[in-house]
Amino acid sequence: MVYTGVPSRGCYLCRSRKIKCPGYPVLAKTHFRPYTEIRKPVRKETSHSSSSSSNDEEEHLFNHWGAYAAYTADAASSPLDSTIKITLQDAASCHFLSNWVLLSPPGTNRGIFEFLLPISRQAAQGSPFHLAFKACSLSSFARRGLDPAVERQAISFYVKALAATSDALSRPSVATCDATLATVMLLAIYEIQSASTHGIQGWSFHVSGSMQLMNSRSWKRLDTDLGMGIFVVVRVKLILLGLLQGKPPPTSSEWWGKGTFKDRYALIGLHLTTKTTEMRNELENLLDLDCATLDDFDQLSVIMAKCQALEEHFRKWPDTLPEYFKFGIAAWIHASSANPAEMEALPGPVHSYRGPWVGGIWSMVRTSRLILVNSMFRCSALIHQRTDLQSLPEYATLAQRCADVIGEAMAGVPYHLGWFRNRTALLPTMPSFACGQNGTESSLAAFLALLPLTTMQDHDFATEDQRLFAKGRLQFMAHQFGLRSAAFAEKDYDSRSAQRWRRLRLPVTEVDVAETLQNEYALGPTTEPEEGGRDTFGSVTQSAELTIHSRSQWGDRAQPPEKGPF
């Protein structure tokens, strides 16, 4: 190009040559080629082994991550020096810590997974904890849309971690140590993120294993902050598993009610939710009977009274809380949408909390109240032999409680799913995580919203908009937060007799109504007592069994009905 006498304002090379600078290429349009492929000589005859193919895949991962990191750093106009190199594993570890490890405020123990930090510093290369941590980190980072090889690497580390953990559990001296229990909980997180079993079944297996390991440990381990942190997380997962699938704790609720004395308000809420899982399992075992005796009907009255007393404790629990544990109304949503499944918040109030820990406790409390109210409905229907729930004497009161609890639970969902990410001024405090900047959008907070959304997505007393909103938020969790198991939550929640806790209407026909227990066994007086059956006053002996119709209220063996008016 002809020199016009005006020095170029472009790069140094163009100024020295005194030509017009064409400018710098757009980074987004630049094709990044691996550096090793440019310098590596081409060989016509090469032999590839399994180890070389694995190394090539890791090399490709490193080069692909380097190009991706350079692009994101330039797109964000980062003031950091572009020569700083961050490996893929370091970036994945930071991403995992910033989404799952919640730090507790000073003077409290309201953190979650804090124990991972000291254990990760002491874990050796190739140990079960190290392998599980790498699997969780890469699985968490894979949701950012990197090369599918990242997900394959996560699966590879997960398989190795399973084998190493199985070997550690075979040694009693290693099975009860803190690192082994932390490894099992990391494997549970991996299952939530990857949904390798197409649901939460894999997560429930690891949670059950962590409960068994906790029972075999000494209570002296709770004297340390590390042991207490592990115990708190295992107990929270125990409650979530019990509320989702009706599995009671392996030991009594009093055993799991110990510890966490720094936060006695959370301790009371967790203890009540643990009692709810026991009550639910007790009623399920009674409803699973093929036949019932009069003692069983008396037991129904006892269970209903216990549910009423426990639900009363739940209703009084908020009155005992300090200000930092109560929820606040940050905003009101007035606009509605034709498609509630795509909304971030339903019309009405939007709750705010002082951290995901507090919000998670409230979610478990509200879900427990719904389970208790549903239990009272079932007990009352069986005691009064009613097929129409609206004719029950407790219907008006219990139905209003269900509607109120569902409304509160839906108002708390936006906090867990990042609604405040652009509205941080509305929050009283910002949660602090182990890595990255403090933010309101995290996988841990989203996971704590899985319980109320799964419970409300098909509840009889939820409105149609609330059901659609819950299902839409579950899909949002699966795609936006990488919690793929949320997409299969409905299938897993239907395990055993879990539909009883959402759908109260039972498939009872007019024929079933006519064949009630009173019609099968006439209770009128007789002149002579029958052997092993009735006395002279017509009362049934305690040993008499009452057979249950295959489609009666007690058995509930038919397919679930279509949704009705409630």
UniProtKB/TrEMBL annotation:
Query: What InterPro entries does the entry give?
Result: DHMBA_Reg_Transcription_Factor (IPR053175), Fun_TF (IPR021858), Zn2Cys6_DnaBD (IPR001138)
GO MF, one term, reads: DNA-binding transcription factor activity, RNA polymerase II-specific
Query: Which CDD domains does its entry note?
Result: GAL4
Is the keyword Lipid biosynthesis assigned to this protein?
Answer: no
User: What is the superkingdom listed in this entry's lineage?
Assistant: Eukaryota
Q: Using the UniProt annotation, give all residue ranges assigned to the region (Disordered).
A: 520-542, 547-566
Name the UniProt key words of this record, in alphabetical order. Answer: Nucleus
Stated name of the protein: Uncharacterized protein
| Species of the source | Beauveria bassiana
Q: What is the lineage of its organism?
A: Eukaryota, Fungi, Dikarya, Ascomycota, Pezizomycotina
